Amino acid sequence: MSKFENKYGELEEKMKAIIMRLNDYQQVINNLNKENESLRKKLAEAEKEMTEWKNKHQILGVTQSILQKEDKAELKKEINRLVREIDYCIGYINGK
């Protein structure tokens, strides 16, 4: 074999090795992308659940606050405040 053929053979082997490593890296990237997407979905679900729990906690706090008020006038004020807040939210949603 000539010197050129030896060099060509070496180059060809190196290129094959590089292509194999590239394929391996692409597989790793694909796996990491799938894992990333899965983790993003779990995070979104956890954030949604956290928001729901915060809302429940707020409702519980308001309920306890209302139940602790002995003065009916104070209770009426609290209910009116809540109704105004609800009306504001409805108006805001309808305005969009």
Task: Tell me about this structure.
The protein is mainly alpha-helical and 96 residues long. It has helices at residues 3-68, 72-95. The longest helix has 66 residues, at 3-68. The chain is rod-shaped and about 105 Å long. The termini are far apart.
Provide key terms for this protein.
mainly alpha, 96 residues, rod-shaped, 0% strand, 2 helices
Architecture blueprint of SSEs:
Elements: H1 3-68, H2 72-95
How would you concisely characterize the structure shown here?
By secondary structure, the chain is mostly helical. It contains two helices and no strands.
**How widely separated are the two ends?**
79 Å
Content-based structural category: mainly alpha
User: Helix-strand pattern, N to C?
Assistant: HH
Shape: rod-shaped
What is the average per-residue confidence, as pLDDT, rounded to a whole number? 88
Rg over CA atoms, rounded to whole Å, is 33 Å
What helical percentage do the residues reach?
A: over 70%
Largest sheet: none
Provide a count of the helices: 2
Strands, total number? 0
